[in-house]
């Protein structure tokens, strides 16, 4: 028995030593951005840090807790000279980080007053395979949109640099959110992508659908009054926000009919219930013929 136990234990200890050494490396917070709906963005730099789209890191802030590590998806692109995370303030630890970064104060904060941060990672996820397909479906629920911020930023950089070498030809992006405030921090990125694709005369490259799954009567009246305006009243995008939830069966059938004989990557960051639905649709809408359309499902749950 000991022969079978010693090998894995040795490998585990080596991994812990590497992770401990990596977590001790100096991390510099270059910018803290306060977004609407109690969401903050931390932009950081670390010597030798290399990432791919959709990866995540573990973060520790000793000023808040000396032992707690929390996972956060990277929202920056590999092409950028920094790495960033978006943190939504929903608990004691995130509230402590919010205050430690001086976000509760009105005056400008000096960089030397920012807390020390330890970072372990990055670690890989299914989203890294997004550039292996010609056609992809990206589905984010609420704050689960964060890995796709990294993906869409990287697509933007690659498209600006050399679109001819980009295997990815079509993106279908779906974002499901309960509250209108959550749209605000992500809408700027979509607006940039929308404008960039129009300048390149390839507006069809990115198709996105934003679904608002919760609203009250006063909001519904406001949406109805401004429905005929050129840009959406919530996001400022030309694509209007949809209300309710997607009919996934219709969405899959429509995409399958537009891309016959293709391997389509389906990427989700969202709850387990939505993962089950998309997995079943991926299976039922894939053809038995190897030359037919096939949906390849990849998920990250929270």
Automatic annotation (TrEMBL):
CDD domains: NOX_Duox_like_FAD_NADP. One of its GO terms (molecular function) is metal ion binding. Pfam families: FAD_binding_8, NAD_binding_6. It is a multi-pass membrane protein. The lineage of its organism: Eukaryota, Metazoa, Chordata, Craniata, Vertebrata. InterPro entries: Cyt_b245_heavy_chain, FAD-bd_8, FAD-bd_FR_type, Fe_red_NAD-bd_6, FNR_nucleotide-bd, RBOH/FRE, Riboflavin_synthase-like_b-brl. One of its GO terms (cellular component) is NADPH oxidase complex. Signal peptide: none annotated. Its cofactor is FAD. Residues 19-129 form the FAD-binding FR-type domain. This is NADPH oxidase 2. It comes from the Eukaryota. GO terms for biological process: defense response; monoatomic ion transmembrane transport; superoxide anion generation. It comes from Nycticryphes semicollaris. It catalyses: NADPH + 2 O2 = 2 superoxide + NADP(+) + H(+). It is found in: Cell membrane. Catalytic subunit of the phagocyte NADPH oxidase complex that mediates the transfer of electrons from cytosolic NADPH to O2 to produce the superoxide anion (O2(-)). In the activated complex, electrons are first transferred from NADPH to flavin adenine dinucleotide (FAD) and subsequently transferred via two heme molecules to molecular oxygen, producing superoxide through an outer-sphere reaction.
